[in-house]
Fold this sequence. Notes:
Blueprint: H1 6-15, H2 23-35, H3 38-54, E1 56-57, E2 64-65, H4 71-74, E3 79-86, H5 89-98, E4 103-107, H6 125-134, E5 140-143, H7 149-162, E6 168-171, H8 187-195, E7 198-199, H9 200-205
Parallel strand pairs: 3-4, 3-5, 5-6
Antiparallel strand pairs: 1-2, 6-7
Amino acid sequence: MIFSSRLIEDAVAEFSKLPGIGKKSALRMVLHLLKQEDADVDSFTNALSRMKHEITFCQECHNVSDTNICAICVNTQRLKTQICVVENIRDVIAIETTQQYNGVYHVLGGILSPLDGVGPDQINIHSLVNRIKANPNIQEIIMALSPTLEGDTTVYYISRQINHLPIKITTIARGISFGGELEYADEMTLARSISKRLPIDNYVNMGGQ
């Protein structure tokens, strides 16, 4: 693309760095912003800047938060007896969208992948185990990881770390095909998978199938 303005060219270059955004889409966004009121553009850029510099991670569950403890963890209406273990923040959003779960979460920040050098020390597994051991009121751990080889390996590893504790360990039902990513499942399928979750023993005995 040839631009008459270096400022527009630079803006397009930055927008096109976003995932799924090509040069043409980036140009449409830039031209749209160019037509907006100064106050609206300032509000937009300020929101992005504050998000980047002020956002933090919950000390309890590792979800994104505006404070040390996230809004889900401090919500007195949530069931603190259930912890739903997910790979990333996008999975929290996907499950929350279903409105079928009212417990709390634990965000691993990844899944085990030895070939990629990702072991238990690289993700939030130890904090999960410590969290469970420190809270005798926890009754159920729900493994809501994507049904991939790495996801299944992570489920198996975590279950081995806590299966000696008097806690029910379950996993979401196989409404999601093997190899699929949790965040891309439609709301109805994901909601059904959560509501019809299975004991972890059934899952492990099936060999992750």
